[in-house]
Amino acid sequence: MQIEVKVIARASKCEVIPLDTCRFKVKLTRPALEGKANEQLIQVLADHFQVSKAAIHIVSGEKSSQKRLKIEGM
Predict the structure, then answer these.
(1) DSSP letters of the chain?
(2) Is the pLDDT score of 16 beyond 80?
(3) Taking all residues of the chain, what is their mean pLDDT, rounded to a whole number?
(4) Residue 74 pLDDT
């Protein structure tokens, strides 16, 4: 399954907001520096979709707030 995500870093709390079946807005508390937000994004999505962190891969947008991710096992 592939999803599109709009990431908002340095939010007050972590939250996954579904926009439709394959588009989400994800609020993260970590800053977008040195990959810290990407690490937290993978953890938050793994918890949300109930998969392991290894099942989630960033396909594109690693250094952008707009990302495309692949989730295996869904």
Answers:
(1) -EEEEEEE-S-SS-EEEEEETTEEEEE-SS-SSTTHHHHHHHHHHHHHHT--GGGEEEEE-TTSSEEEEEETT-
(2) yes
(3) 95
(4) 73
